Amino acid sequence: MRTNHFPDNRTAFPHNVTLDCNLNRSVMLSGKRIADVGYKLFSGSMMLLTLYGGYLCVLRAQRFMQRQKQLEAQNESTASETIKD
After folding, report:
1. DSSP states of 18-52 as a string?
2. Keyword Transmembrane on this protein (predicted)?
3. Fewer beta carbons within 10 Å, N or C terminal of the chain?
C-alpha cells in the first residue's frame, strides 16, 4: 500500500501541476508587464521627442520672421537714403 507523506492528504502530482501553472502565469504576467512598461517608455520618449522637435521648429520660424523684419527694415533705410540723395 502506498503511503502519503503530505499532512493534508494531497498527492504530489496535482499539487505540482497547480504550482507549475501558477508559476507560468506569474512569469507570463511579469513578461507582459515588462513589455507594457517598455512600450510606455518608448511611447513617452517618442512624445517628448515630438514636443522637442516642435519647439525647435517654432524657434527656427521665430528666428526666420525676426530676420525677415530686420532685412525689411534695412532695405527701407537704404531705400530712404537713396531717395534723399
Report:
1. HHHHHHHHHHHHHHHHHHHHHHHHHHHHHHHHHHH
2. yes
3. N
Sign of the C-alpha dihedral, residues 29, 34, 40, 46?
negative
- The span from the CA of 85 to the CA of 75, in Å, is 15
The whole-number pLDDT of residue 78 equals: 82
Instruction: Find, among 55, 78, 76, 58, the residue nearest to 66 by Cα.
Output: 58
Dump pLDDT digits (tens) for 11-30. 555 555 555 555 555 556 78
Grid cell digits, residue 56: 525647435
As a whole number of angstroms, the distance between CA 67 and CA 74 comes to: 10
